[in-house]
Specification:
The complex is a heterodimer of chains A (about 180) and B (about 170).
Chain A (H helix, E strand, L loop, with lengths): L1 H7 L4 H32 L6 H14 L5 E4 L4 E8 L5 H7 L9 E8 L7 E5 L1 H12 L8 E14 L2 E14 L1
Parallel strand pairs in A: 2-5
Antiparallel strand pairs in A: 1-2, 3-4, 3-6, 5-6
Chain B lengths: L1 H38 L2 H18 L6 E9 L5 E6 L2 E6 L10 E5 L7 E2 L2 E3 L6 E4 L2 E11 L2 E5 L10 E3 L1
Parallel strand pairs in B: 5-9
Antiparallel strand pairs in B: 1-8, 1-10, 2-3, 2-6, 3-4, 7-8, 8-9
The chains are: A alpha+beta (about 180), B alpha+beta (about 170).
Chain lengths: ~180, ~170
């Protein structure tokens, strides 16, 4: 009779207790299995991290593009990558030189330090809005989706102001979201 | 006493059945996942979309007329269409039916108002793909001419990733 009582709604107190006792074990099994599956999913999910290459391409594009901050000779069509023109070194020039359809794709701060100086003489931003938003996220220790990473590069340059050239270093602080 | 033992056995049986069902579902899910991971070519598509997009990004900064032949080398033939869009490179499974939805992976590059992007696509043909002892090779050629970037087919001058300067 007992085996029929279980499904007929006329369960005895002991039967119910036996069933309830098993619930934590079933939940534990489910949790462990989900954990193993999540690890397996993470291990087999192909991830290709190209942030370093992206940062390098950004730096080279900023320096080598005729439409960016380096000196460009209109007559010869030649770019002088190491010579940064003071009047071209603006956030507007940088923003116009590269446009991504996904606005968070990359953002950066560019600082020019004169030789021997610890304070930047000029600062410009590429995609300042998202640089300001993502920089605190990148500074946090969180990683994975939604986070960001900071990459720094330093390039020796000639900083050209009207009538004078100065040896300097340009510091790139690039923020790339994950 | 006999009733209590019966209750315990029934409870254990139900618990075991539930556990077995969960484990069976888990094994099935793992098999499906591993199978799809092995057969999947998503990794290759993601890799080449990124590679070609970053290459296009670099081309935006270069002056003059030139073309770059980029080779996609895979163990087995990868029949994909490589599509140059305004602001991105997309790699997707080849399909003859335009209405058919095929899985696509893409990566962005930065555009510039002074450089025109001509949307173009490269499909696999006998002239841009061949077999070697290292695997299957598929060539994709990006060309920059008159401040315009577009995808074209390889010619006999540019080979194996060489840069052709004109």
């Amino acid at each position: 009779m007992n085996r029929f009582n279980l499904f007929s709604g006329r369960r005895k107190k002991g039967q119910v207790e036996e069933m309830v006792e098993q619930i934590p074990y079933i939940i534990l099994t489910i949790l462990v299995i989900f954990g193993i599956y999540a690890l397996l999913n993470y291990a087999t999910n192909p991830q290709i991290k190209v942030a370093n290459v992206q940062a390098n391409v950004f730096v080279y594009r900023t320096l080598y593009s005729p439409h960016s901050i380096s000196q460009f000779d209109n007559n010869t069509g030649r770019v002088y990558p190491g010579i940064i023109i003071d009047e071209k070194f603006t956030s507007q020039t940088l923003d116009e030189s590269m446009q991504y359809s996904y606005e968070k794709q990359i953002s950066a701060k560019l600082e020019i330090y004169l030789e021997g100086s610890s304070e930047p003489v000029r600062t410009a931003y590429y995609n300042k809005e998202w640089y300001d938003k993502l920089r605190p996220v990148a500074n946090s220790r969180f990683s994975g989706a939604g986070s960001a990473q900071i990459l720094s590069k330093q390039v020796p340059i000639v900083y050209r102001q009207p009538g004078a050239d100065f040896p300097a270093v340009m510091n790139f602080t690039i923020v790339i979201p994950e | 006493m006999k009733g209590k033992r019966g209750q315990a056995i029934l409870s254990s049986l139900i618990y075991t059945a539930v556990e077995l069902a969960i484990v069976a579902m888990f094994i099935a899910a793992v098999l499906v996942k591993v199978n799809s991971s092995v057969a999947d070519d998503t990794y290759q598509k993601r890799f080449y979309a990124r590679d070609l997009a970053l290459l296009t990004d670099s081309m935006m900064a270069a002056e003059g007329t030139f073309q770059l032949e980029h080779e996609i080398i895979t163990q087995k033939p990868l029949d994909v269409d490589v599509q140059l869009k305004i602001g991105s490179i997309a790699v997707k499974d080849h399909t003859n039916d335009p209405d058919e939805i095929s899985s696509e992976t893409s990566f962005l590059f930065g555009t510039n108002p002074n450089i025109k992007i001509t949307p173009s696509v490269s499909t696999q043909t006998s002239t841009n793909s061949y077999e070697t002892k290292n695997g299957h090779v598929r060539a994709v050629v990006l060309r920059k001419q008159d401040s315009t970037i577009y995808i074209t087919e390889p010619n006999t001058v540019a080979k194996t990733g060489d840069i052709e300067l004109e």
